Every structure is written in structure tokens, then in C-alpha cells.
Amino acid sequence: MENSGAADEIITRAAASGDVEAMLACDTYAQAHAARGEAVRAAVGKGHCLLALRAGQVAGYVLVHDDFFGYGFISLVVVSPAHRRLGVGERLLAAAGAACPTEKVFTSTNQSNLAAQRLFASAGFVRSGRIEHLDEGDPELVYVKFLR
Q: Quick one: which H or E segment has residue 44?
């Protein structure tokens, strides 16, 4: 799967094992938390990861799953600090939605993560619920996008 536009120079595609190191290099959290790298490697190995390239560089990635109560779930969206606010996150969410075999796709973020909430809203997601006690004092907000 490939998605590109001349105006924004962002290409999305399935991530391959050879992409992992560049993906983790653009992810500041992964650089400090080895478990993130392990999760990314596992997702790539299962074909559950899409990446975005901008000007030939890895600009971000998403992890996607198909086991959230029978629906698709985007468990992680990462955009390199150098590529933020350039449409990379929206393009990744659109690619994940296009690849989703179900009629809706879900995602979530902490209530404190205002940037993710803005990204989800701009990508057409709506609030669907709230989960308490995952991170004490910072509820998880669940979002849904209706695809079909």
C-alpha cells in the first residue's frame, strides 16, 4: 500500500524489518524505553505497522491491531519532532483507516495529551469513552472513526 501526494511529499507504506532502526531513531520515547523497541519489532514482524516517509526520511509510524472487540485499533502514533505539524500524523491515521478491514477504527490517548486529542479530532475521530486507572490521575480517552 502506498499513498503519496506531490504537495506534501509524505508516503505511507507497511513497515519492514529493515525500517525498525530508523523508526526507533525518530521516537524519543523509544530511545529511553527498550520495551517500546521490542513492541515495535513485534508489530512490524506481524505486519501491524505503517510508516510515513517525508523527503526520504522516516517521519513517523503507527501500530495497528485488529483485535479491539472485533474492530481495528491504533495503539500508537509516533511522529518525529522534526516532522510535526506537517500532516504526517493525519496521513498515518488515514493510512491506518484505509487498511482497516472493519467499519470503524478506535484509538486512545491520555487526557493530558492535548496534541494527540487535536490530531484525532482533525483526522475525523470522535470521543467514544473513557477508561480510568490505567495511569492514575490521567484517564485514557477512547476515540472512534467510522470508516464505512
A: helix 34-45
Would you place residue 4 in the very low, low, confident or very high pLDDT band (cuts 50, 70, 90)?
very low
Q: At what angle do helices 88-99 and 114-122 cross, to 10 degrees?
A: 60
Cβ neighbour number for residue 134 with a 10 Å cutoff: 10
Report strand pairing: 104-110 vs 126-131.
unpaired
Tell me the DSSP string of 51-77. Answer: EEEETTEEEEEEEEEEEETTEEEEEEE
| CB burial string 37-64: b at 16+ within 10 A, e below | bebbbebbeeebbbbbbbeeebbbbbbb
Residue 28 phi/psi, 5-degree rounding, is: -60, -35
In angstroms, the CA 134 to CA 89 distance is: 24
Q: 24-35, pLDDT tens digit by residue?
A: 999 999 999 999
Averaged pLDDT, 32-46: 96
- Give the chain's end-to-end CA distance (angstroms, integer): 19
